[in-house]
Amino acid sequence: MRALASRLLQFVLTVWAATVAVFALMQILPGNAAQVAAGMSATAEDVARIEQEFGLDRPLIVQYGDWVTGMLQGDFGTSYVTDAPITPLVLNSIQVTLILVVSAMVLALLIAVPLGTLAALLRGRSLGAVLSGLSQVGVAVPNFLAAILLVMVFSLGLGWFPSSGWQAPIFGIGGFLSHLILPVFSLALVQGAILTRYVRSAVLEIMREDYLRTARAKGRTSASALAVHGLRNAAIPVVTVAGVQLATLLIGAVVIEQVFVLPGMGSELVRAVENRDLLAVQAIVMVLVFLVLALNLIIDLLYTLLDPRVRNAA
Q1: 133 and 82 share a domain?
Q2: Does residue 103 share a domain with residue 81?
Q3: Mind listing the pLDDT tens digit for each residue in 251-270?
Q4: If you placed Cys at 80, which of 37, 100, 129, 152 could pair as Cys (CB 3.0 to 4.6 Å)?
Q5: Which InterPro entries match (predicted)?
Q6: Residues 110-136, mean pLDDT to the nearest whole number
Q7: Taking the complete model, does pTM exceed 0.85, yes or no?
Q8: CA distance between the termini of the chain
Q9: Which of residues 275 and 50 earns the better pLDDT score?
Q10: Which residues, 6 or more positions from 292, have their beta carbon under 8 angstroms from its beta carbon?
Q11: CA dihedral defined by 159, 162, 168, 174, rounded to 10 degrees?
């Protein structure tokens, strides 16, 4: 219980430090948000009026306090450029990104766990070498290249799936899945290849342990001994790496959303940067940082559950 409280406190302090860093970064960027909102032909009086309207003429500590207080209440403020609330934009885009990233990670694990385990069990055989070689090739392929190849084959070539766009599930599950499949596979194939390498290494390490050799000496096959005694221990490093890769997927989703024209966090971030909508940029970056920190917290908790040594030490 003490370890859980310590991790939660560390998480809260890290999130607070992230808010300070993100807010400070936005302040040191060149340009004047009020000038952008007023337009290049605006007079000094127009700029001053907009600064007063949005509270940009107040002390930075007051602006920071209002921003953090608003976020705690679910209010990310109003865009300087569009004069529209930012919260609906964030909520709509985060749904798309989370669906994309979580689906891709689930598919990547479904690919990596059996293939990595099989590659370890067949080490030294031709099929094991083929699986290892394919995973190495997959690691070398960038997400955007995988996306382009999938579009060329399955969209432009075979016409099975749309090449871009998004359809929410409430408008039809068929259309939703057809628009989701190619983006998810674009992310999952590369991440699956990376995780396959880690699963193979973890399984090979576990197979060298004395307790598995004892199980095999008692008559169990390598696969049976691994399934009964080894997979849980092999999952410990894999879970840690999967957490890191899940954070990487959030970053990779920015590119994939651009390729497939998906209205996710990455697309909204790029659009906000192009429009110099600094408050929207600030909100989206903060949400992405929060998601990465929350993922790290979840992985720490899963690690404690999987490894009794960590739990007992706590």
Answers
A1: no
A2: no
A3: 777 788 888 888 888 778 88
A4: 37
A5: BPD_transp_1_N (IPR045621), MetI-like (IPR000515), MetI-like_sf (IPR035906)
A6: 76
A7: no
A8: 8
A9: 275
A10: 247, 250
A11: 0
